[in-house]
Structures are given as C-alpha cells and as structure tokens.
Specification:
single chain; 224 residues; mainly alpha; two-stranded antiparallel sheet; 10 helices; 58% helix; 4% strand
Length: 224
C-alpha cells in the first residue's frame, strides 16, 4: 500500500501535539492522584544532573513503582485505547486530520495500536524492570535512563525512515504493520500520482483483451 498524498509533515506536528498533551495529562493526573499516596511527581533532571536521585517526597521504592505504573496506564489509554476507539486517531492526529490504518485500510486492532505506540516502548521495558528497585533503587534508575535513551534513539531512526521511505513508514509502523494516511483516504479509490492525477487501474480482463489484440494481425482480416 502506498498513499501518494504526503502526510509526513502532519505526522510530525501531530506527534508534537500528542507529546505536549500527554505531558500535561501526566502532570495533571500525577499532581492529583499521586499525592493521595503521599507522593509527588519525580524530577528526572535531578537524577541526570546529580547522578544520584534523592527521592525526597518519594521515601520508598514503592513510590517509584506506583508512579511508573500510573504513567504507563495513562500512556496505554492515550496512545492505544483512544486511537482504537477513534478510528486510528490520537488527539494530535484528529487535529491534523490524519489516521493510522492497517494493510486493508481499516482501523488497526488494539494490539497493533499498542505495538505502534513508540512513545510507550520505554515503559514496556521499564515496568518489568521495576523488580530491580527492590534490590537497588539506583540500579533501576540507571537502567531506566538507558532504556529511555534507547527509545529516543529508536524514535529518531523512525523519524528518519518516515522522511526517507516512499510509504512514509516509521520503524514502529513496520513493527505493527500499519500506515498513516489522510483521514479521507479511501483504499478503494484509484491511486493518484505525485501531481494528484488519478491513475488508470486495469484488471485482469483488460490485460487478457490487450494480449489478444496484440496477437491479432490486421492482415488476418484480408486473408479471411
């Protein structure tokens, strides 16, 4: 499948919008929900700058577990459940009028939305890695930092493939077997070339008729 209408620019803007919305959402929910457990949202820059994370209002490893799982749950809702319920669209995609589809042009399954949610890749590893907290908190924090760095690298590679591949698919699209197209994309409509001109679509019957006519010599008419 190849959508001739470029949407790479819209994808980038939509991704930025989604990151902003998701960040605000986690800050809002974290600021309301976590204090119920006597917690506050941790500042990751403190660990990065100092090399040693002082939990302060996070007095126990359980605090980090609750925070990580809470934000992971928010991410699943935002990047998987919402687009699954909204025809392949996150809030950012709704604003930019684009959507994710599968090979048939339909809204991908919930499982595929989970697979293509590259923003959650670090969580997919961080959540199981939480077990490290109960052995050594700083070990988990260092491992989690490496996981986040690896996810960022994968995101940059995916960004590169979106701009360089003809089908504009990122690594996460190839993993989930999905595409991102304009919201008015019609998989049944004839493909358009780079100038927006509709291509002629020949079916098998057309090919058979063409082959027949090629083998039919005009001189045969005079011989009969």
């Amino acid at each position: 499948m190849h959508n001739k209408r470029p949407v790479k620019g819209k994808r980038i803007v939509a991704a930025i919008i989604d990151v902003l919305f998701f960040t605000l959402l986690t800050m809002l929910i974290g600021g309301i929900f976590l204090p119920l457990f006597g917690l506050e949202v941790a500042d990751p820059l403190e660990f990065i700058n100092n090399g040693d994370f002082d939990f302060g209002t996070h007095p126990t490893p359980v605090a980090a577990v609750i925070e990580t799982i809470t934000f992971f749950a928010i991410g699943i809702v935002y990047y998987a459940y919402i687009p699954f319920m909204k025809d392949g669209k996150t809030p950012g995609k709704i604003i930019m009028k684009i959507k994710a589809i599968d090979e048939t042009g339909a809204n991908p399954s919930f499982k595929r939305h989970l697979a293509r949610a590259i923003e959650l890749y670090s969580y997919y590893i961080s959540v199981p890695a939480l077990v490290l907290i109960f052995f050594d908190l700083n070990t988990f924090l260092w491992v989690n930092t490496i996981i986040i760095a690896g996810t960022f690298l994968l995101f940059m590679i995916s960004l590169t493939t979106i701009f360089t591949r003809l089908d504009e698919r990122g690594v996460h699209d190839m993993i989930a077997k999905t595409y991102v197209v304009s919201e008015d994309y019609d998989p049944e409509a004839p493909e358009e070339d780079d100038h927006g001109t509709k291509k002629l679509v020949w079916d098998e019957d057309d090919d058979e008729e063409e082959d027949f006519m090629k083998g039919y010599e005009k001189e045969d008419i005079w011989k009969r």
